[in-house]
Structure formats: C-alpha cells, structure tokens
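Annotators were shown the component list below and the corresponding predicted structure, then asked to write short factual statements about the assembly.
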Amino acid sequence: MKVKVLSRNPDDYVRETKLDIQRVPRNYDPTLHPFEVNREYTRALNATKLERVFAKPFLASLDGHKDGVNCMAKHAKSLSKLLSGSCDGELKVWDLTKHECVRTLQAHEGFVRGIVVRFCGTSFFTAGDDKTIKQWKMESPGYGEEEEPLNTILGKTVFTGLDHHQKDGVFATCGQQVDIWDEQRSSPIRSFTWGVDSFSAVRFNPVEVRHHVSTTLRHTHTHTHTHTHTHTHTLYSFSMFTLAYKVFIVSLPDAFKMDCLIFLCLTSLYTYDMRFLDRPITVHMDHVSAVLDVDYSPTGKEFVSASFDKTIRIFPKDGGRSREVYHTKRMQHVICVKWSADNKFILSGSDEMNIRLWKANAAEKLGVLTPREKVAVNYSQKLKEKFQHHPQIRRIAHHRHLPKSIFHQTKELRVMKEARRRKERNVRKHSRPGAVPVVSEKEKHVVTVVK
Amino acid sequence: MASPGKASVSDSHVGKKKKPPARYWQEETDGEKKGAEDGGRAAEEEPRTQKPKQEEHQRDGKRFISGKSDPFPGPAPIPEDRLQKFKRKEKTKKHRRQHYKLRDIITRSEEASEMAQKQAARFDILLPEDAGFLEGDEEEDTYTISQEDIADAVDITSGAKYFNLKLSQFGPYRVDYSKTGRHLLLGGRRGHVACVDWQSKQLMCEINVMESINDVKWLHSETMYAVAQKKWLHIYDSNGIELHCIRKFNDVLRMQFLPYHFLLATASASSFLKYLDVSVGKEVTAICTKTGRLDVMCQNPHNAIIHLGHPNGTVTLWSPNQKEALVKMLCHQGGVRSVTVDKSGTYMVTSGMDKKLKVYDIRALKPLQSYFLPAGASCLSLSQRGLLSATTGDVVQVYKDVCNTPVTKPYMAHRVRGTAWGLSFCPFEDVLGVGHGDGFTSMLVPGAGEPNFDGLDANPYRSAKQRQEWEVKALLEKIQPELISLDPCELGQVDQATFQQRHQDRVQALGFDPLAKEKFVPKYKKKGRSSTGNVEKRKRQVAHEDQRDIIKQTVEDKMKMEKERKNREKKKAKLSGSRSALDRFKN
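Structure shown to annotators:
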C-alpha cells in the first residue's frame, strides 16, 4: 500500500515572528476563484463610486487682486510661481505652495493684457492698455530699491496679446497688427496686418521652433452687415514672413491656444490640424457660453477651457465632450486658465478678483503615495476603464452636478439643436434629393478659407 | 537583439557536442574564429551562409565571459495542459471592418491576457504542495484498505485526522465545514449543536437548542452559523449566543450558503425557497416552488444556482431573479434522494429512490453516466478534486472519476456506527466528515482536497486580523443577487440585444412608446374646405408614407438588380461568342 495524505507544515504558512508580514500563499487556479467577472464588476462599481466620493477638486483660492484677473502666466522654471495681472494694471507674483502673494507691482495703467515669462525665468514681459510693453526682473527689488521695469517700449496702438519665443530673444504682440519684436530693439522687426481686423491673441508654435518657422496666429472679429459674427484665425509663417491661411468661422470671437494643433472657440472649441485648416478635427462642445481661455496639459492629452458661463471644463484632446466640469457658487466669469507644468493642478482667474487652484484629477490623492496605494490606484483605474461602458458604471462616472442655470441652459440648447435638426431633416425630405446635403458638425462652422 | 522568445527548441544547444579544450596547435584557427562573429560555434557551421549565422548570434545573445553560450536559450517552455488550465476564452475573431482603434485595443488586451495566462501557468509549477493518493499493492483493491491502516501508515498529524466522536444521545448529525476547512459544525437531530476547531480538537461552543434541528450551516466566516430549527431559522455566534431568530423563515429543512453573494438560501417544508442576505439581514426573494416538501438541496459553486430535488424524480434549478425554475430535469423514476454539483459547475450527481446514481453534464443538460447501487445512496458529496462519496445506510463509499469513465469498484469504503445523515468533504484537506446516528466520523480520503489554497480567498492559517481584513474586502465586493445567472461570465460579454428588444425594454420602463408616431389629424380649414371628403383625401395623402418610401426603394432596387442581371447575361452570351444557327429564331 502506498499512501500520501495532505499534510501541511504550519511553519510554511504562518509568519515566524510578530514583526514579519503575514504570509499569503497564492494559487491562481480559476476554479478556486469563481465569479471573477462579477467580482471585478463589483470592484469597478465600488471604485467608480469612491471616485465620485473623493472628487473634491477645489484646493485654494488666492485673493488679493483689487479687480478682475485678466491674465496669468506660469513661471518657465519654477513650479510654485505664478504671475497674474488684473484689470486695474496690478501684477502679482504668487507662491503656490504657501498660497500667498509674494510681490505686487503696479505694471500698467488700465488692463494688463498679457504677461509672459522669458524662457530663462529671470525676467518677464507685460503688455497693457497704456500702449506699453515692459520687461521686469523676476527677483523682487531689494530694500530701498524702487520697483522699476528693466525696459519699457512705447507702442503706437493698444496691445491685446503677448507671447515670447521658447528659445530666442524674440517676442510677439498683437493688437491692430501683429508685431514681432527683438528684445534688444525698441521697434518691431516685423509687422503683419490683414485687412482691417484686429487681433486678440498671439502664440509662438512650441513645436516648430527648431525650424524657425514659428507661426503666429491671429484672431479677429469682423462684424459683417449680415449679422454673422465671423471669427477668423490666421496663420503666419514666421521665417518666410508670409501669410499662410485665414479661416473664417461663424462664431463669436474669443481666445485660442495653439500647440501642434490650433484651437479656438465660441461655446464650442475647435481643434485643427495646422496643415489642413479647412476643417476642424474635433469640435468640443459642452460650454453654454463663450469660451474665454484655453490651456493644454503638459502631456498634451487634455486641455482645460475657461468660460463665460462661470465654469471651467476639462476636455480630452480628441473627445467631443468634457470629462470634468468645475464650478463654485462664488466663481464668476472665468477669464483665464492655466494648467500647471507638473500636470497636477489647474489655475483659474475670474472676474471676482480671485485665482483658484484646482486639482486636475478631481479624485486624486495628493502627497506621496505608498507603493501599495499606487498599486491599488492603478488597479482600480484599470477596472474602471474595463467596465466603463456598463450602463450603471457609466451613469455614475458621468454624473456631474451643475448649477441650476447651466443645467437648464444645457437642456434648452439641446432642445434648440434638436429642433434645428428636425427642421433640416424635414426640409431635406421635401426637397429634391441632393439639394440639401448633410453637413457635419465639423464642417458647419467654417465659412471659407482664404489663402 | 531579437527577443529570446524566438529561439526554437530544436535549434538549441542541448545535446550538441561540447567543444574540445583548445590546444596550442589550434591557435591559428581560433584566431580566425575570433575574427568571425561567432566564437562559440563549431567549425562545421562555417560553410553556412552569412544570414542564419547572424540570426544565431542574435538568438543566444546572452554570452558568458567564459565564451560559452546559454545551453537553454529563451524562456522555459510551459506545458500545454497548464496553459489550458488558465485559459479564459478563445481569441476573438478580427473582423475586416473593425475600426482600427478597436482592433488595437482588442489586440493589446489579448496580449496582456495571454501574458497573464503564461505567468500563471509558470507560477503553477512552483506551487508547494502535491495532492494525496492511495495505491494498493498488486492484486489489492484500495477499498479493502481500512481507515486504521491508513492512519497508521501516514504521519501523526494526518493520522490524527481520522477520529470518531461518540455522540449517541442526540444524533443523527448534520455536518458542515467552514470555507477554509478549519472549523466543523455539527447539528444533532435532537437539538445538539457543537462547533469545533477539528484539527486542534478544540471545542468552540456546544449548546442544546432544545428543539429538533433540520440543518446547520456556517455563514461567511467561523464567527457565525445558521441553524434551521423546528420552527424558525436561528443564527448563533461562535460562542453559542443566539444573535437572531428569523421568523420570516419557517420550517426550513435544508440550507445553502452562497459565500460570494452573502446569501443564505433555505428550502422549507412548505415548498418555499427563500434567500436571506446575511450582510444586511433582509429577505431577498421568496419563491414558492409549488413542488411539496423540499428536503434535497445543493448549490452550484460555479454560478450560485440552487438545485432542488423533488419526490417526483425531477431536479430543478433556481436563481433568485426568477419565480419559475430555470431548468426542470427528470432525473429518476422515484424520488430524488440527494444532489450534488462539482466545483467547476460541469457535473451534477444525483441519487434516487430507484437506487440509481446518475451523472449529468449541467452545461449541456445531458446524462453522462448511470450506476446502479444495490441499496441506493442517501447522501452525496463531491470533493474539490472530484471524488464522489455516497452513503448507503451505514456504509460510506468513495468513488474516483465517476463523471468521465464508468467505474465498477469504489475507491474507498468505510462502515460507520449508525445510519449516515450528513456528509461533507473538508475543503483543502484529505478528510471526509460523516455525521451519523452514533455521532461523527472523520475519515481520511487521500486525494480529496485541493493541495494549494489561495491565501486571499480562503486561508486555513489566517489570523484573526487577516480574517477581519478579508471580511471587509469580501463585503465590499459582495455580488448583487441580480447577477446570478446560469452563465456567470455573462457580464463580460457584449450585450447584443436587438433594437426591438431594447425598444421593448424602454417602453416597459417608461410606460409609453417614445417612438410611437402620432396619428395624423388633418388641420381644420375654414370656408368649407374641411368637408368630410376633403379630410379623407388629405388623410390618404399622408397614409402609410413611410411604408410607401420603403416600397418605392425596394422596387427600385429590384429593378436595378434585374437590369444588372440582364446586362451580365448579355455580356456572358457575347463572350461565349459563337452563335448557333438556331439563335436567329430567338426574339
């Protein structure tokens, strides 16, 4: 007779001393783990619910401005520094870790229209309504020294936007015309105009700097007689100094942002491929009022938009709908927004003189995570992704509380859109086949492209 | 460098002649070889073309300083059967029209799951324990070996697992092992309840409920158990303190606990099947089965479906989501005496009054084997590794491989002191517990238990702290009773409901049909233009508008196809060329 009976040595399964961690032998045999899909689903559902429970994005409010915050700039080298300019010409430098203002200076008379930090981080430029561009030192003046700009350039017209080149000592302003300035000279090295339009924002292309074909982009509004608000954006080729494109878009004018793609907005935002400006790649819709500012995350996968409807929204780069909406009772029209360089925070400056600090990922835990926490977060993230299309999970994950007015406005807009669609459908039904073609949402907004 | 996975086994260096040690007169040739890319190759490979040489060089990229190459290049091969064990599903077919993004996602997730499968299969080789076995000598049948012999032959701790408890006063006994297999619950017909840590033989509590007991069951952990007493269902804790008396559950005869759903399913004498959610203490559903006294019950551990056996020979399958049975099977000529389902949910074994023991495939609902037992089996139990134990009177028999191959002899047999009433294999141990009229017998059945447990699921060696942590985790991932269905993987599949189905659901949920077309009511027009005739005319204009469109479209399509067909025929006729003489009479 040969016999063997299961006999385990408890020493192999129990920890030796109290200081050890517990032994957990594993066996991944599927028959020992029944209902794996159902259990994973339950875990995913719990993770989704917990995410909504922990979604507390608002971190701090930086107050101190005496008028609405009109523009902000991130420091090129330091994560904790933020510059903001208000409508009364005051400029403040903030320390974000301490949530306090470290320096205040009266930069301009009237609005501060644009701030940009030089790529080295030692100085910054401001442009204002008083037709001046000023360069300031980043360091605050020592005891007894007076707050004075390094340089002051007096322009001929009011400036509405400002941007600095990423590598060279060149910056650009816009207003009635787009000017390219050398830091060393007090007159623009180049000016561009197109028709009578004025420009509201200007950006250097961050990607194509090496080829010196940085492009600036312009935005104007032309009120034509037919009550159509045309919104154009123009692309200049910097090296060849020629005008490349001009796109007319039926919408209200506002801000735009340019990365490798171009971007501009009304209640919708449009992402363009810069090479093919006749048709946006994606139309991002969710805001119920004009979009005033936009900023990409440093990863380039998402962007944040600030709107006149008192909310900020986060959109995925290629998604038509926002994944997140932030609002508070006290936040008024949001004028400017910035995504911090560590991809973790969002800063919004609004009409009621406050700058607000938000988490980019609402449910994220701040601070250092232990390895086990990290593993748990990654696991639940993967689960949420896996089961995201299940109706119950989708409902919970997508639900956001909205202020009453925005909620009703959204509903109203939906009804209006549906009515328009229905009408178009009926018109198409009763006209000659092909007479009323189906125009996609992307194509609808572009009127013409002028080369 | 090529990935190590590309190395084929046939090309490995295993079995190749070892290079003889270098000698001084070979210096020249060695120098030549050094010039070549591959120093470790034998001379016979030199005439090869350049290309395969490069490949080989890439393959055994790992070189030791000594110049020798890895004799086992690439990852170790994994046995096919182990891979099969961890296979979840077949690869999805790629449709030509699939969107490229979707295709990418599917490919990537399949790669990940394949890797996981391989890793799990590799890990499986490293598991520490092996299953038990019992082999007789030549010409010796294993069922002739007595329990005493086995207990003598094995080590002391295992030998101590064979024991008898003489409890002749309150028997016969029902038996239940906790999920980890550490704790044993005994319930005597005449009211005696005892819970024991049976390995250390420590008595946790012993009470007499002063009522007749029909069944006992551990709940999710060893701190609580349910006792089906004469009238109500009671819940006690491990100290024997009565926690609840649940008056909603009366005349309970048999109970089953679904550990992942935290549901206690009870079958009563009044033919009610009721589910109690033990985590919140609420009755989930009560189903009137209308089949009389329910005293045969078991659960399918694979999909949490309850199987009930009835006096008319049928076995019915139940889920809490449906008031009717999911399946009704006629299994026996007489009444069903006992039912049991194996761990993987593939096989069901039933025994009936017709003295037969039958094996069914419950995925296909087909009979597989039928055995005749001279006295019939009163209790059945399947172990984790598929051993079947059956009791006839006071004899306990254990069979091996009943499901796949017809067996003639039992694997083991043992006679207990009284008629067996409760029977249960202990999880993760080679032990079979038998409750009978004279107490309880713990038998050794080598090869019954799963040798390697999973520490996060059911850990027999867990501490109190670990148990508490496990309890919290288990409660968090409690599966809702709505998810119980015949196929437990249903949730992971694509919901391919047709438009009609979804529309029907929507109508049912809303209470009205959102897509229903309003009936056309012509506008009232003045000056006599709304005469009945005119109204009818206008109605006729819009009547069946959508249908007309469809009809028009189909007619057009048909015409088009007909035309194309004719064209094709014409072309064919032209191509076939030679006109016969009779063609002139055509048309």
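Statements collected:
1. Residues 89 and 110 of chain A are 5 Å apart (CA to CA).
2. The helical segments of chain A are 36-54, 371-386, 391-398, 404-429, 441-444.
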